[in-house]
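Researcher: I'd like a structural prediction for the single chain below. Treat it as a standalone chain; there are no partners to consider.
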Amino acid sequence: MTWAVREKGYSQRRACGLVGLHPKTYRYASKRSGDEELRTRLRELASQRRRFGYRRLGLMLKRQGIKLNRKKLYRLYKEERLGVRKRGGRKRALGTRAPTAIPQGRNLRWSLDFVADTLVSGRCFRILTLVDDFTRECLDLVVNTSHRPACRARARSHLRTQRMPPHDRQRQRH
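Model: Treating it as a single chain, here is the predicted structure.
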């Protein structure tokens, strides 16, 4: 608007008509005060109480004898950019993670996991699967209806008779 009036020499009425703006809207001058004292007091309180939002800061202002409409308080709070600082999230690992080394031969690393299901009768059972990471061969499946940790120990001791476990192989090298 101002550019059209200054540079092109248009009248205010013509420039407003081109833009689709009422001339009174263009000429409007706000009579609202800047509220500088209130803004400085709000900034001081917000710096003292970083975790307080605009509602709690409004209560503190009210206790000090400053009455303020909540909408005006919110507007000033936003204009001063006094939003509550968010706390940091969970700590994440820095840098790039190294990929897991792929074993270069049989019986160097085994993986084990439980697979669980339920029978028609409602009874739960679990199957311990033991897999060689290099060959992807399933070394053993141990079905167990109880949830005791002894199941893993039984599977490992059973495999010792058939194969040499990875940790024994590493002991022989050293």
